[in-house]
Amino acid sequence: MGSIDHGTKQQSSWQDIVARKRQSAETLIPKEWKLPASILDSLAFPLDKHSNKLIGLDIPRKSGLLTDRELDVTENYTVPELLAKLGSGEFTSLEVTTAFSKRAAIAQQLTSCLTETFFDKAIERAKYLDQCRNEGKPLGPLHGLPISIKDGFQIVGTEASIGYVSFLGKKSTTNSPLVELLLSLGAVLYVKTNIPQTLMTADSDNNIFGRTLNPHNTVLNAGGSSGGEGALVAFRGSPLGVGTDVAGSVRIPAICCGTYGFKPTASRVPYGGQQVPALAGWKPITASAGPLTNDFEALEVFVKSVIDATPALLDSTAVDVPWRALEPKVDSKLRIGVLQEDPLYPLHPPVKRILAEAAKKLEAVGHELVPLTAKEGRVSDIQEVAFELFVLHTGTSIGHIKASGEPMVPSVAKADKPANYGNYTFVPDLKDMDFVHKYASLSVLRSELSENWRKIWLEKKLDAVLAPSAQNTAVPHDNFGWPPYTAFLNLLDYPACVIPYGKASKQLDTEAVKMPAAQAQYDPDVLDGAPCSVQVFTRGFRDEECLKVARVVDECLKQS
Question: Which major enzyme category is it (predicted)?
Answer without folding.
Answer: hydrolase
